[in-house]
Structure formats: structure tokens, C-alpha cells
Amino acid sequence: MKINDEYDLRIEKMTNSGAGLGRVEDMVVFVENTCPEDLVKVKISKVNKSFANANIVEIIEPSKYRVKPFCPMQKVCGACRFQYIDYSYQLKVKKEITEDAIRKIGGLDIKIEDTIPSPEIKSYRCKIQYPISRTKNSGRILAGYYKPKSHEIVNIKYCPIQPEICDKIIEFIRQRAFDYGISGFMEKNHTGDLRHVVIRSSKYTGKNLVVLVVNATKTFDRLNDFAKAIYDEFEEVSGVCVNFNSKKTNVILGSKSECLVGCDYIEEKITDKVFRIGANTFFQVNPKSAENIFKYVKNYIADNFETPQVLDAYAGITSFGIVVSDVCKKVVSVEENKESCDLARTVAVENGVNNVEIHNMDAGKFFAKEKRKFDVVILDPPRKGCTEESLNEALRLSKDTIIYVSCNPATLARDLKYLTEKGAKVQSIQPFDMFCHTYHVENVAIIKN
Ligand SMILES: C[S@@+](CC[C@H](N)C(=O)[O-])C[C@H]1O[C@@H](n2cnc3c(N)ncnc32)[C@H](O)[C@@H]1O
């Protein structure tokens, strides 16, 4: 097999990076933008020892799971890779992606439950992060998602997976930034003011927090005036913040934000608790689907324990801890981000929750010094998962149950393998669809030790 060779092949399944997998004799071939059961003519673009990559030349026989994408930009924008796949089949694919990771990386033979769908499959995404740039000649602002595998911005005017108001706010920024002397950022030579616009949108209040991420270390008059103009234009905007990020990095937010006008948070309701989300705080992008996960964890604890002590680690704004607090004797949370911990303390008081103890520190360091034992340890780490030291400590701190919430099946599988090697037993794995039309999947694993 060599580059530019053409083959006809049938797609067998999707991989955890969102490509379709087919075979030419014993060689595995990954083909983007395909769907299981598609018969496609492909052209080989890269050949490795045990696998190759290829592009579609022609769909000879489309899969019965193909549908017309509801967004006209789906082919050019890299955000919704799976929109051409029927939604119920997307759920099946996510279950299979989890199964594959748990079996191949984790070496475990565990039944994976059916994926619980997102209550909404359009307008679900409440955290919007648009990179900003400018056109070379006219300096017009460009705002949108990157094209797949590039840093070229697709100037998106309408995005059906986020609340409609976000399109309007972004369009205002696109049209008016120039009037305020705010230029778009050029990644190549690291010049210009505005790098990203981040919007945190609330399903509960309909309000939006706009965060202008700038290539600067302090605010300036033009930016303050522009922030005020955005705030005055939209009653749906609760506040406008600036975030400072002048580093040469792909990380979107710098560590410091400042409120320029209005209020520096939005409120979101999950079950009967009202949370505050700020510029630099983590919160699940799909609040309705997140609520299903929070309820699942709360029900598990309520059904299996009487007044337990719970540790909520990698807690963000202590969202799990505060939601489950009514069925617990005590909740202890640990989170490294100070803004999240400050908000969590306020939120606990506002919700009348007085059995939550919040620690602002590195989870690993907290685990190592903690002497108490917990009936349940909740772990909800970032995509890279937990360190072996943290997993050892979680086993030591947990009397018999760890609930591991994960947004990355590969690191979940790796960590479950480690836990089972240490004698723990995985009781169940439940996938949830938090990121509709993408290959991402959220899982909750219940582990007994
Ligand atoms: C996937 S989020 C989960 C947040 C929260 N459980 C929720 O559902 O809203 C992971 C969180 O872990 C925090 N984090 C990352 N590394 C950490 C560490 N070493 N120690 C403590 N917290 C950490 C991040 O700041 C982030 O808030």
C-alpha cells in the first residue's frame, strides 16, 4: 500500500478520535467523515506500519445511519464532527467507543450500559469559546471555530448547538470591535488585541457572561469602552470581563480575569441548587445533560448509604458535593482553582448548605495529608485522568466506593486498569452524552474496593 492508492472499503466502526475504521486486507485504514456501514472509495494519504489514513473519494453506498446535517457549516467547521450521523446511532457509537477503550486499554470485560441521551441536542452548549483573528487587508474581525486539524478560523455567523443569543453577541463584537480600535489577534506574529471571546450562558436565567481574552497584561480605555458597549446593547448580558493572556500558548484563558462592567458570574440551576459560574471556573458545557449525571450520582449515594461522608475531588465549584449534600452527613471537597472554591463557598451559603467543607489545594497534596476515611470518594479529574499516586490515595481514603466521572474513555480505562490491579472491582460504567454531535463521551464508573 502506498500514498494515493485507491481502494473500496466498508466502514466497520468509529474510533475514539472520531474517524471511521475500515480494512484493506489486514491493514487498518482510518477515514474521516465516514459512518459505520458506509461503502466508500478512498485515497490513501498516509501509510504507517500497522495502519493507514485515507480520504473519501466517493461514497459508493451510504450507511443507513447517515442523515442530513442540520448546520450548513458542518463540513467546514471542526466542532460537530458527527452531525451527519443519526442521533440515536451517535449514542450507540459512544457506547462502543467506551467499550473499546475499556477492553483494549483497560483489559477489562465489563458490560457498558446504553448511553443516556442529552435532553437537548441543539442549543445545548453553554460554554462558547471562539478564537478571534482578522483579515489581512481590511483588518475585519473573524470569529468562529477552527477548521478541522488547522488554526484557520471559520467565520461562523450561526451555530445551532449554542443558544441563539450567542450568535448575536458575537456578531456585535465582529461588527463593532473595529469602531473601538480593538484589533483581532494574529497568531503568526503574536499581534493584535482580542484573542478569544468566551461566553458562559445560563439555561436557568438566559443571562450571559462575556469574557474578552486579550493579548495584554492590564486593561485599557478602548477595551473598557467596548465592554460597556456590549453590556449596554444586550439585556441578556449580565457582565463583561477581561481575561489577560499574552503568552505564546494554545491555552485559551490566562489565570487572571477582571470584571469590566456588570456582574462577574452567571447563575445556573442544577436539581434544586443554584450555582454561580465565573470567567475562570470549570462548569459542564451542557447543563441539562450534566443534571442527569448529578442525579445519577446522588441517587446512587442515596440508595446505597445512610448519611455517608463523601469526598468530592477535582470539585470545580463543588457541584457534585453541593448537589449530593442533602443525602450526606458531610461533604469534603478539594479543587485547585481559587475562584471556583470562593464561588463554591458563596453558593453553599446561598443554598443553605452547611455540611460542606471546601479545600483550595492540589488534590494529590490534599489526599496525602488527609487522615479521615470516606464512604464515597468522587473523582472527576480533567481529561488526562489521575496520577497513580492519586489513585492509591483514593483507595486508601475510600471505605468501599469510588465514583469516577470521566470525559476521556482512554484515561478512564487506564485508571480502571490500575485500580483493578490494586484489587478494586468495577461495578458499572454508565455513558452519558454531554457533547452531542462530537465523538466525546462522559462516563460514570462505580468502583468497589
Ligand atoms: C472535569 S473538571 C470537574 C469539575 C466538577 N466536578 C464539575 O463537574 O463541575 C476538573 C476540575 O479539576 C480541577 N483540577 C485539575 N487538576 C487538579 C488538581 N491537581 N488538584 C485539584 N483540582 C484539580 C480543575 O480546576 C477542574 O475544576
Report on the structure:
This protein has 449 residues and is an alpha/beta fold. It has 3 domains: 6-66, Beta Barrel (OB fold (Dihydrolipoamide Acetyltransferase, E2P)); 90-120 and 286-448, Vaccinia Virus protein VP39 (Rossmann fold), CATH 3.40.50.150; 127-270, OB fold (Dihydrolipoamide Acetyltransferase, E2P) (Beta Barrel). 25% of the residues lie in helices and 30% in strands. It is built from 9 helices and 21 strands. Strands 17-16-15-18-19-21-20 form a 7-stranded mixed sheet, with helices on both faces. A 6-stranded mixed sheet has the order 1-5-6-4-3-2. The protein has a 6-stranded mixed sheet with strand order 8-7-9-10-11-12, with helices on one face. A hairpin with a 5-residue loop joins β2 and β3. α1 (87-104) runs parallel beside α9 (409-421) and α7 (363-369) packs across α8. The longest helix is centred in the first third of the chain and has 18 residues, at 87-104. The protein starts with 5 loop residues before the first strand and ends with a strand. The model has no long low-confidence stretch (mean pLDDT 96). S-adenosylmethionine binds next to α5, β16 and α7.
Write the layout of secondary structure elements.
Layout: E1 6-10, E2 13-14, E3 20-24, E4 27-31, E5 39-47, E6 51-61, H1 87-104, E7 127-134, E8 141-143, H2 164-176, E9 194-201, E10 208-214, H3 221-233, E11 237-244, E12 256-262, E13 265-270, E14 273-278, H4 287-304, E15 309-313, H5 319-324, E16 330-335, H6 338-350, E17 356-360, H7 363-369, E18 374-379, H8 388-397, E19 398-406, H9 409-421, E20 425-432, E21 442-448
Parallel strand pairs: 4-6, 10-11, 15-16, 15-18, 16-17, 18-19
Antiparallel strand pairs: 1-5, 2-3, 3-4, 5-6, 7-8, 7-9, 9-10, 11-12, 13-14, 19-21, 20-21
Helix pairs in contact: 1-9, 7-8
S-adenosylmethionine is lined by residues 282-284, 314-316, 319-320, 334-337, 340, 362-364, 380-382.
